[in-house]
Amino acid sequence: MFSRSCHYALQAVLYITLHGGKGKAVKIKDISESQDIPVHFLGKILQILVKHKVLASIKGPNGGFIMGVNSKDISLFEIVGIIDGHDIFDQCGIGFKSCSDEHPCPVHNEFKDVKAKIKTLLESKTIAELCEDVKNGKSVVSFAQA
Fold first, then answer.
1. Residues 138, 141, 145, CA angle at the centre, nearest 5°?
2. What is the sign, positive or negative, of the torsion defined by CA atoms of 58, 54, 66, 10?
């Protein structure tokens, strides 16, 4: 449902939140290696997040990326919107252009319910909540070199 860029953005923000903090910048190389993401591709994604003030970029020898907003104040839905846009929640599950409530495709009603549940989940979960679940052992993230 989401693009590779969106997945990488979510993973990078989680990594930065878990490994940064208190002014400690996370290097792009560390994120890239931990998630096996090409550095150049990741750099473009991170710059989009900087442009939208989700992240801040620190220059210099101790530079890297830090959160630009409090992780309690950013939902997964917001990050998805920045990278993929929110129109994915309005698209047909099969890909028809004319699918609507008035002219539904064969999976329209069921897919509409699924999209609504996913949207509610993404709106309700903040980056801080996900990181707290990881720290408390309720969930796991697979960072190769974390």
1. 135
2. negative
Residue 19 lies in a domain: yes
Domain holding 70, by residue range, is: 4-135
CA angle at residue 20 from 19 to 24, to 5 degrees? Answer: 140
- Digit-coded pLDDT (tens) for 76-133: 999 999 999 999 898 998 989 889 999 999 999 999 999 999 999 999 999 999 999 8
CATH of residue 77's domain is: 1.10.10.10
* Domain-located, residue 142: no
Q: Residue 13's closest CA among 3, 4, 26, 2?
A: 26
Cβ–Cβ < 8 Å for 47, 53: no
| Beta-carbon contacts of residue 6 (< 8 Å; ≥ 6 apart) | 79, 80, 83, 84
Between CA 46 and CA 140 the distance in angstroms is 23
Please give the model's pTM, rounded to 2 decimal places: 0.88
Token pair recorded at residue 50: 């900087």
